[in-house]
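Work Package 3 (structural annotation) set out to generate three-dimensional models for the target panel prioritized at the project kickoff. During this period the team completed the workflow that converts sequence records into discrete structure tokens, so that structures can be stored uniformly alongside our sequence database. As a representative example, we reproduce one entry of 471 residues exactly as it appears in the project archive.
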Amino acid sequence: MDTSRETSESAPGAADPARPSTTVRDAARHIAAVATLGAAVIHFAFAPAHFDDQTSHGAFFVVVGWAQLLGAAALGFRWRPQRRWLLGTAALNLAVAALWLLTRTAGLPDEPAEPVGFPDALASALEVVAATAAVAVALGWLVDRTVRRPSLAITGLPTIAVVAVVTASVVPSVGGGHSHGDDGHDHGTGVAEGESAADGHDHGTNGGDEDFDARRLAALTGYLPDEEIERARAVSKEFLAEQLRARSDLLAELPEDERERRIAEFVDWSVDHALDAEAPPEEGEATMHVHGESSWKDLTSAEEVALLQEQLRIAGTVPAKYPTAADAMADGYFMVTPYVPGIGAHYLNVELLTRDGFDPAAPEMLLYNGNKPTSELVGLSYATLGDEPPEGFAGENDEWHRHPSLCIVGGLVVGPDSTPEELCDSVGGRTGMPWGKPMWMGHLWQIEGWESPWGLFSGENPLLNLANADL
């Protein structure tokens, strides 16, 4: 009886044709191909956002995506020479991963380090996995032996896992998207667009979102490194200290040591709390504004649309009159707040404030990107005195807020509504509004180059950050 066939089929190490099998090297090659393909999908998914930010950034993402797609195909279909394709794909993935690490730590020249997010971290992890597997195959680090187990466990499960996590990373509600601020990027949970703080009067849907609050602060600091943020804060503190010395009658009467001690204590607190959340004194009462993305409410008629367009056209004639703070001061405006990230420096015209009615051609306040006479106009602010906000712009999108207890010294707002009364008193200030009536305010961001990505009437504008400030 011929037993050679039976012996061959039952010998150790022989493949069983009835059972799926693969080799260790083939499994590693497959994992490298799938991981490279996953990274390519992520790069393609976020290329449009990078084109919106800068053409070169978008082009880089597209080129990398196609190169990774080519490498994945070469590994998956075993193009020859296999060793060169393996090493080339590994080198590409390692180079892209290294660039990502650089942008998240030291940053690129003239660009700050960017925050880490789920999509970009996932892409880099896939690139490292792909490079490691490809190098292991190319250099013969793996034993090329048959593995007797279902192919699904060796190649199918990694494929399913990569598909799942890559899909999650490109779904905004799961991966958080991949968005940009003006001076930096927010890779992960939604950046620079839709930032918020909890200042009492809700301008968006983000109040109470701790992650969002952190992103808002990052946007308003311009994604600068800590040392640059501290430098800007020091400049702001010195400017505020100079204003207190010049404006406070109380401080002028104190001995120098006591005067400087009080000034230092006040400016430290005020600058540290300039962006703090404000809680309304009574539930439902509007004080300061929750800063975030404004949800646009559709207008109800063609007449309402036409009226809003005409109002915005009229408001659009204002910037040419007041391109700098010096131009505003020459026409009766004066500084009432120093520069605050998100809202700028406010210049008020009291004559316009105390009139009746709303006029888009004559904003009561003008907003500038710094504390200098040469600072640039970045936005308009309309204000009115009374128990209720004005009708304002047509529709329901202009959102009004009021400040009940600002700390004011010599006509300048030196502290937010949350300033402790005794601290305000210590520098000769007073809380409350000087006209005996609530003052309602609303912002308009339609000046070319300074249009707020958080909304036409948003409470804050992330383009007014420390990186862009004229300090």
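Residues 358 and 390 are 7 Å apart (CA to CA).
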